[in-house]
Amino acid sequence: MAGGTRTERVEGLVLIAVLLVVGGFAGAASFTHVKDWTMANSPTGTGEWFGWANAVISELIPMAALLTIRQRRRKGGSIGYPMFLLVCAVALSLSAQLAVAKPGLSGWLLSAVPALAFLGLSKLLLATESARPVPAESLPQAEPVALAREEPPQEAPRPLRPGLVPVPAQAFARSSVQEATL
Length: 182
Fold this sequence. Notes:
Blueprint: H1 6-40, H2 48-75, H3 80-99, H4 105-127, H5 169-181
Helix pairs in contact: 1-2, 1-3, 1-4, 2-3, 3-4
């Protein structure tokens, strides 16, 4: 974000703010859904901490996977395993959200919003990658062009003293000859 125009820097800051707000709320909703789902399916007497621990673990894995994917893309590494983790973690989150939803299309859709928001943000973050320099060998090579040779312009002789105009030697010789014949 160091370069670019002022407008680009402001847009970048606004994008970061939007990502943080949406990501924060989507994460909070997902944490709650995963915690509730965990507690509803855990043995009687399981402490609340277990539900929150499961939520934190399952919801932070996609963040770590996303950051790892971005790092590996910048370095040209393989993104297979972190992408697998990202897909699995989002599927788990979506499952939890659908499991605690009211039965019916609107309940499932509204409950799925946090996971869908995370998927959308992930795609947005993965798509906005810094421009990398293109290797010179992959650029098309231009054909050499023969340049027309131009003769450099002839400089007018400079006067020896300001205000005096130089007279070519031939003109001087002619005027001397003319004066001699008079």
